[in-house]
Please model this.
Amino acid sequence: MTERIRRREAPAFEEKETNLFVALQEDGFFNTALNDSNQYGPHTMIILLGIVATITGAALLALMYIY
Model:
């Protein structure tokens, strides 16, 4: 049975033996989050989502008080 939607191959990444923060220092925050340069890509993407949601919420709250 063939799949209707073919799976893409997993991106190449380096397996890090260190923790998340050391891996982010070595590969960079955005490179890890957006390019999955190591195994902490999904964790970093969740952190990025929290940052973007916080900025969006603060902007909407500021607009609510202005108008």
Observations:
- The chain has a mean pLDDT of 90.
- The two ends are 58 Å apart (CA to CA).
- The CA atoms of residues 13 and 37 lie 5 Å apart.
- The chain is about 60% helix and 0% strand.
